[in-house]
Amino acid sequence: MQGYISVGVFIDGGYYAKVNRALKKIENSIIRVRSLFDFISRNLAYKEGVDPSDCQITEAHYFRGRFRVKDAYDKHLLYNERKFEDTLIENDVVFHYKHLREVERNGQPEVIEKGVDVWFALEAYELATFRKFDYVILITGDADHEMLIRKLQALKTKVVLLTWNLTDAEATSPLLKEEAGHHWELSELTKADRNLRRHLLYKLRSEPHPELGESF
Fold it and tell me: How is the chain split into domains, by residue range?
């Protein structure tokens, strides 16, 4: 048992957006950031046998590629991007962005995101080194972060992989699950506990206006 638990949360924005898009399609809902953070703190407090007030997310970081302002405007993404950023700010999440590029290949536009995964890993490792988190929560399904988990555990930092798999096409990498000391799969947890599902999700009131786009 510890007297105080310090938690760092690192969110793969591309993965998080895929989950939200799937939730929106299935039941017109998206994840409520504040409720997700509350779930993380309470679950870890119970696991460590401390009061929830002694288990705190001391830092949270969000990494994502995004379009330049003109491209985002043309694609009707600006409103949703700004709205989501408001949510991150309200929950003290630091966001980290790199510009996306769009190229044409075989007559089709292709979005290229370079460097975000590397930035995610470097920032998570560096902050874990200096901040001495007791736990690092990684919200991602990307196999490329297998070595990040190994390096964090070498620092004696406990790592929780938090995922929400809603389609087979976006299933979490088996290598990632094997490397993580703890894995919380929210599709399974919310299936077993409907109250948890209601707590974590925000029900959208209506279908968004077409001009608001699809990005969360």
Answer: 9-131+152-169+179-208
Whether the Cβ atoms of residue 95 and residue 62 lie closer than 8 Å to each other: yes
**AA letter at 197:** R
Question: CB-hemisphere CA count at 13 Å for 207?
Answer: 4
Structure-model confidence comparison of residues 200 and 2, the more confident one: 200
- 182-185 and 5-12: which strand pairing? unpaired
pLDDT tens, position by position, 15-51: 999 999 999 999 999 999 999 999 999 999 999 999 9
Cα gap 216→14, rounded to integer Å: 10
Q: Which helix (H) or strand (E) holds 135?
A: strand 135-139
- Residue pLDDT, tens place only, 73-131: 888 989 989 999 999 999 999 999 998 877 777 767 667 777 899 999 999 999 999 99
Alpha-carbon distances of 100 from 35, 69, 135, 172, rounded to whole Å: 30, 11, 31, 24
* 152: helix, strand or coil: helix
In one-letter notation, the amino acid at residue 18 is K
Q: What is the C-alpha separation between 163 and 183, in angstroms, rounded?
A: 8
Exposure class string for 137-151: b at 16+ Cβ within 10 A, else e? bbbbbbeebbebbeb
